[in-house]
Amino acid sequence: MKHKKKKDVRWEYIFGVNPIQEAINAGRRKISGIIVKKGATGKPVLSLISHAKRCNIPVDFSSIDKIARLADAEGHQGIVALVTMPRLTDFDKLVERAISKPKSGRPTLCLLDGVMDPRNLGAIIRSANAFGLDGVIYPAKRAASYTPVAAKASAGAGEHMSLCPVNNIAECVRKLRDDGFHCVALDAGGTEELDFAGISALALVLGSEGKGIRPLVIKRCDKVMKIPITGPVGSLNVSSAAAVTFHMASSR
């Protein structure tokens, strides 16, 4: 597969039917071409091939071994696509866009303080998209980023979301409060159960899989809330906790 190389353009292979399908639908990335396993069957793959051809995207066929090497991860479903790197969002522009939402919708952002597993990041992005959040903010370094593995875990939802890597989550919390956002840290040790009534602009902060939210970030939040759990296991995985919280935030 060939494409015209430009010095300022970087490429990567994404994999799986849904991420590739949504990359085409969203139109944010340039797609050089798609490689499919020889003899591929199944309605989802065949439908994607037809869609790609209608969009004038080259489709080649190759061995499953080559596709596995290009994907370099499990769950590739026998299909990869060579695409430009994801389009990321500037923090100030994201906040401005969220605030300018129609009055019928509450601006809602998610901040992740050190989520390390790209599959958790992808699952959180998927939930954020499903429940209408305006964007997901995460550390640019020493944390999971929107890689092809995260794209697969998001089922392609990341192609439609505003994704914003930043240098300092604690500083972002401070800026959001200055801009009128009510910043809520989600922690099992929270003093209040989830309740977002009366909040006009909401920023939800979730922590890493092991250590949770760092003390400085918690200190800068307006409140620390918890999910009411009645079962014997008193905690949820961060991506599950995010899904519950996003649902409650969207149910005004």
From TrEMBL:
State what protein this is by name.
23S rRNA (Guanosine(2251)-2'-O)-methyltransferase
- Organism, scientific name: hydrothermal vent metagenome
Q: Which GO molecular function annotation, any one, does this entry have? A: RNA methyltransferase activity
Q: Which GO terms describe its cellular component?
A: cytosol
- GO biological process terms held by the UniProt record: methylation; RNA processing
> Which Pfam families does the record associate with it?
SpoU_methylase, SpoU_sub_bind
Q: Which residues form the RNA 2-O ribose methyltransferase substrate binding domain?
A: 13-89
Membrane-spanning ranges: none
What are the EC numbers? 2.1.1.185
Keywords, ordered alphabetically? Methyltransferase, Transferase
- UniProt-listed Gene3D superfamilies: 3.30.1330.30, 3.40.1280.10
The cross-references to InterPro entries, in alphabetical order and at most eight, read: Alpha/beta_knot_MTases, Ribosomal_eL30-like_sf, rRNA_MeTrfase_TrmH, SpoU_MeTrfase, SpoU_subst-bd, tRNA_m1G_MTases_N
